[in-house]
Amino acid sequence: MVSAMNETYKQFQKVNSLIGEFLMRSVLENCHIKRFLFTLYIAILSLNTVLAQTCPPPVTSTITSYSNTYYPRQQ
């Protein structure tokens, strides 16, 4: 199953690369503003991907956080 997922991911990367090449050649060829906006868009997408993969900050909880709960053998 992992190899099938890896193969699918490789195919996705290939298609994504082809789409990127097409956009860079046809749409953004001679227009600096479009090229800048496209680069900014890709940077924002990349940042969102990185932020989505990071873990939230750890939250500590102790027994004293729940004072109304009985914990046997802990005094």
Descriptive account of the structure:
The chain is built from two helices and no strands. It is mainly alpha-helical and 75 residues long. The protein has a domain at 2-52. The longest helix is centred in the first third of the chain and has 26 residues, at 2-27.
List the helices and strands and how they pair.
Layout: H1 2-27, H2 32-53
Short description:
The chain has 75 residues and is mainly alpha-helical. It has two helices and no strands.
Rounded mean pLDDT score: 71
How large is the radius of gyration? 24 Å
Summarize the amount of helix as a percent range. Answer: 55-70%
Total number of helical segments?
A: 2
N-to-C span: 50 Å
The largest sheet, given as strand count, sense and whether it forms a barrel, is: none
The helix-and-strand class reads: mainly alpha
Low-confidence spans: pLDDT under 50, at least 5 residues? Answer: none
Sketch the topology as an H/E string, one letter per element: HH
Strand content: under 5%
Number of strands: 0
Features:
elongated; mainly alpha; 75 residues; single chain
